[in-house]
Amino acid sequence: MLPYTLIEKKQSGQALNKDEIHFLVDGYVKKTIPEYQMAAFLMAVYFKGMEAEEINAYIDVILNSGKRVSFNDSTTYYADKHSTGGVGDKISLILAPLAMASGKVKVPMISGRGLGHSGGTLDKLESIPGFSTQMSLKDFQKQTDRLGCALIGQTKDLCPADKMLYALRDVTATVRSIPLICGSILSKKIAEGIKGLVLDVKTGNGAFISKYEETKHLAEQLKYFGEAYGLSVRPVISDMNQPLGDKIGNWLEVEESLDVLKGGGPAAVRELSLVLTGQMLAMADPKRAEGDIRKELEKLLDSGAAYDAFLRVSKEQGADIRYLEKTELYDRSKYIIEVKSASEGTISYIDTYQLGLDAIVLGAGRRSLNDTIDPKAGLVVHKHLGDKVEKGEPLITLHSDDKKAVELLSKEIGDRFHVSEDNFTMKGDLYEIL
Amino acid sequence: MLPYTLIEKKQSGQALNKDEIHFLVDGYVKKTIPEYQMAAFLMAVYFKGMEAEEINAYIDVILNSGKRVSFNDSTTYYADKHSTGGVGDKISLILAPLAMASGKVKVPMISGRGLGHSGGTLDKLESIPGFSTQMSLKDFQKQTDRLGCALIGQTKDLCPADKMLYALRDVTATVRSIPLICGSILSKKIAEGIKGLVLDVKTGNGAFISKYEETKHLAEQLKYFGEAYGLSVRPVISDMNQPLGDKIGNWLEVEESLDVLKGGGPAAVRELSLVLTGQMLAMADPKRAEGDIRKELEKLLDSGAAYDAFLRVSKEQGADIRYLEKTELYDRSKYIIEVKSASEGTISYIDTYQLGLDAIVLGAGRRSLNDTIDPKAGLVVHKHLGDKVEKGEPLITLHSDDKKAVELLSKEIGDRFHVSEDNFTMKGDLYEIL
User: Fold this and answer.
1) Which helix H or strand E contains A239, and what residues bound it?
2) Are A272 and A341 members of one domain?
């Protein structure tokens, strides 16, 4: 078998068989197939797609490149949530303790770092002083069983093939490929040993896949291939045509999550947290009325029980929870600059993708692999789609220690918001459960 | 400028501007852009093509990555021929001394090695004992002026970007891309300092681009972009649905070339040599009647003048010309095995591409970059398209020192020939001058 022939086969639109997919991915992991041949193959997949059998084989080879977690307690419903990535998406920080607080499910959550214009749960957790996201798979399993939740990053021994493929896709513009996304997400989630997976599949100008029809196709594919591996999958398509909530940036998003966990916070963040956690609990107990689940979850937020659960997990993972209890102890950015609207009317469009990149420029994300993150840096959005705005009213606030970045962005970031004289009505729902 | 953004731009079908093309190719040459990003870009070009401005910029940056030859004598017509590659295509070995013998043009010819299923002029020349294809660009220029012809391989200082890009395309299945072929061929030919270029653009099942319409498009593009650089370009589309002539393999092809240079050899090889050399002389002197040119060239072959010219160039470049004068001095393969027809009828199809690969298996080409070539190895074809064949009559003879390869191929090589009960008529002409 020659890598060249397999690249050519995919390039001409033919399906590879299981052995061929295994040969390519295993060869890439063992470095017998060079990065440039894998890059050419991934780009051919981007253009020509994969058939169902190929996607199964692709998930399989990534899954079997490392270890798998396996929980012994068959009476417990282990579940996780995954988001395809957006701007201001801090739902995992709320959902995990909220689900844990319900006692109905246990959440072994393995998260990733920021990617492209999109933030990562791991970077947000690590903005909490002392919070450690590294532990062995054994300890991860133990903590999940003992506490009901553990929040970690991908370990070396879990789907190492995905780690290598992901790094290559990230630099070769081959992230936005449905079969490759399926392989990457599902292999890791299957390896977690969970029973149920709630998927938050983002659509709109701040999502990796912006068109609704493509998003829906991705959601269906993720459900189909996940279920082929015995996972229960509940995809929810949610709107990413504006940042989720007000705050973008690691510590800023922790703050907003704490607000929601204590019964407050922006309505959109509370609502999506209730919907996604509700779906998780509904999967665990399909006979239970969804209205009951919702009431229970609202109570867990409003009573502070979900907040307590978050403190418990954070403490267990080494966090200095004084910062969570008293967020004003946390350092603030040197430059906190309000940018005002140059016109009046209704917010009719927000360039969400660009706001994600702007947050990175301010220090909230990495521009290259070895860049460091400024946990304080980010953006606070004051106006959302459909909001009225007066001339001179604040649109957004920049938080950064980087004077140059602040100077640059304070001039142009106002342009991410389109202000229209007409009234604005949202097209369609903010989310859709498939 | 980020390589990632440029890959994404091409992936979405947008044209890159001149600066962006230069940034990518220069970066790749200087190794600031890694092979995997270049591979992803090349695959995106394979799928999305390039616009005219992009192809110009691509030729330009490859051309300017190294030195250029520049002849001082403005009264001389310097010309070269290039073939897009086929099986049994030894025309350069005949055309160069034939054109030289005419005294009407001078031929500074820089050739390549075997590629994919196709042989290379350089490997054929090097099968002649002592023949050296390495010299400095200065000596190359001097010999061309003094003798009327020089036959060398690509030097380090001539289009180094092409050398690197070519090696990458060769292993990432991105050779068959019209803009990339244009960039590769034309940059090198422009760098040779010639005025006129005859192009033998192969079509059919043994060519890199098999479909006639695509071949014609390639021929037109090569003419268009070559002429944009002040080169006169005369493309000839020629048939590659069967090996050209009888012999495939390096020394075997030298032998057949000597036959043609002495007025004999297979009619198809003689004919295409006369056509292509004729076009070259017609470009040098457009007022001259083509019939006169043809008569002159026939005479140069039949009188032995072209043969003498080949001996002169070979001697000048270190060859032991006793082997050319007395080819029976040359070693023969250990195994020379005739394969016979299993049925009777008319040859209606020859899998030319596969015969090219078969010759490599016998030792006539490289299977990997560091493989060595057996100059004696190859194939002799006894039947061509439209020929009648009896059961048991020889179809092809294998020449090889590799017992295993001979055993394997002697069983299956007969299948490359389809024998039909119907009469066979060639579709269209064997060549077409554009």
Assistant:
1) strand A232-239
2) no
- Does one domain contain both A138 and A265? yes
Query: Which residue from A minimizes the CA distance to B167?
Result: A36
Q: Which residues of A64-85 are buried (b: 16+ CB within 10 A; e: fewer)?
A: bbbeebebeeeebbbbbbbbbb
pLDDT in tens, B366-380: 876 667 899 999 999
DSSP B283-314: HH-TTS-HHHHHHHHHHHHHTTHHHHHHHHHH
Please give, rounded to a whole number of angstroms, the shortest distance from the CA of B193 to a CA of chain A.
34
Q: Is there a contact between B36 and A7 if contact means CB atoms under 8 Å apart?
A: no
DSSP-H helix ranges across A229-371: 250-261, 267-284, 290-302, 305-316, 322-325, 352-359
Looking at beta carbons, which residues of chain B come within 8 Å of A214?
none
CA B96 to CA B105: how far, in whole Å?
10
Please count the structural domains in chain B.
3
Chain A positions contacting chain B at CB under 8 Å are: 3-4, 7-8, 11, 34-40, 42-44, 46-47, 168, 171-174
Residues B182 and B216 in one domain: yes
φ, ψ dihedrals at B294, nearest 5°: -60, -45
Shortest CB distance from B39 goes to which of A39, A46, A47? A39
Task: Give the closest of A11, A36, A174 to B168, CB-based.
Answer: A36
Residue B186 reports pLDDT greater than 90: yes
Whether A141 maps to a domain, the answer reads: yes
* B279 neighbors B433 (Cβ within 8 angstroms): yes
Site from A1, A43, A357 to mutate, B interface, most B CB atoms within 10 angstroms? A43
Radius of gyration for chain B, computed over Cα atoms and rounded to the nearest angstrom: 22
Residues A171, A307 share a domain: yes
Cβ distance B172 to A35 less than 8 Å, yes or no, reads no
**One domain, residues A89 and A29:** no
CATH of the domain at B17: 1.20.970.10
Min mean pLDDT across A80-89, A112-121, A396-405, B290-299 is at A112-121
- In CATH, what number is assigned to the domain containing residue A371? 3.90.1170.30
What is the ipTM score, two decimals? 0.84
- Average pLDDT on B154-174 reads 91
The last residue of a domain, from among A325, A343, A369: A325
Q: Is the pLDDT of residue A162 over 70?
A: yes
Domain that holds residue B31: 3-49
Nearest to B4 among A4, A8, A171 (CB): A171
Whether A233 and A310 share a structural domain: yes
Q: Is residue A206 part of a domain?
A: yes
Assigned token pair, A355 = 């706001």
Is residue B383 assigned to a domain? yes
pLDDT band for position B428 (cuts 50, 70, 90): low
Query: Is B68 a domain residue?
Result: no
Q: Are residues B170 and B200 in the same domain?
A: yes
d(Cα A79, Cα A94) in Å, to the nearest integer? 15
Is 0.90 topped by the overall pTM? Answer: no
**Collapsing DSSP states into helix, strand and coil, what is residue A390?**
coil
**B380 and B317 share a domain?**
no
Integer Cα distance of A234 and A223 in angstroms? 7
Question: What are the tens digits of pLDDT across the range B290-328?
Answer: 999 999 999 999 999 999 999 999 999 999 999 999 999
User: Shortest CA distance to B275 belongs to which of B431, B149, B384?
Assistant: B431
Question: Which of A271, A302, A325 marks a domain boundary?
Answer: A325
